[in-house]
Amino acid sequence: MSTTKYILLLLLCSLLTTCKVVDVPEPYKLNRHEINISPYGNWIEIVHKSSPEAVPQTVAGELLALEQDSLYLLTGNGNSFSISRSSVVSAALCTHRSRAGNYFLVTILFSAPAYIGALVHTEYAVDFAGLGFPVTLNGMYHVMKESVARSNFLIYPKRNGLSQFQRFARFPAGLPENIDLSSLHLKQMSFTKQNSLTTRQVNYP
């Protein structure tokens, strides 16, 4: 297999074989420019244990606030939910929509003419491939960064501290005094049966 075909195959596999970190509802998949202007918090999934011997539970929802000792979420069924920071086992928060698909499409569009030229004009195949190779390599880097490295997620405790989640809460400075949590609502969305669950048991090693 030629180097060019090998790189294209890797690029395609990196896009198609990526596993999902969190099942994020569509309205909470923000574009990058919306991060600082959205009046809502970002979507987060937390695995927590009420005690060291307890079965881990997973809760997902909009991050409302991160206080000194607790996190507050608005779950898929519209109820507020508080979790002690000390009980958090892991957490993943989606900061913005993945752009891996966009990078992949742009890479194909800009590199395809060079590879087509190499196939049609075989006597200049090396020259044409030389034009497409840098585009493919650069595109593969950005696709891998978005899809494999998951640069659009904060992941605790693997690479982020909980304090880094605070700026993505609906109330970054903490819950306002005397706020009625029951008056808060999620973005308008259609939930699947799984998303509507407040908590569910998970297998945790």
The counted number of beta strands is 7
Structural category: alpha+beta
Helix and strand pattern = HEEEEEHHEE
* Estimated helix fraction: 25-40%
Shape: elongated
Mean pLDDT across the residues is 78
Distance between the termini: 41 Å
Q: What is the count of helical runs?
A: 3
Percent strand? 15-25%
- Uncertain residue segments: 14-19, 190-205
Based on CA atoms alone, the radius of gyration comes out at 22 Å
Largest sheet: 7 strands, antiparallel
What does this structure look like?
With 205 residues, the chain is an alpha+beta fold. It is built from three helices and seven strands, in the order H-E-E-E-E-E-H-H-E-E. It has helices at 3-16, 100-120, 125-147; strands spanning 43-48, 57-66, 70-75, 80-84, 88-94, 153-156, 199-201. Strands 1, 2, 3, 4, 5, 6 and 7 form a seven-stranded antiparallel sheet that branches. Strand 3 (70-75) and strand 4 (80-84) form a beta hairpin. The longest helix is centred in the middle third of the chain and has 23 residues, at 125-147. Residues 14-19 and 190-205 have low confidence and may be disordered.
What is the topological layout?
Blueprint: H1 3-16, E1 43-48, E2 57-66, E3 70-75, E4 80-84, E5 88-94, H2 100-120, H3 125-147, E6 153-156, E7 199-201
Antiparallel strand pairs: 1-2, 1-5, 2-3, 2-7, 3-4, 5-6
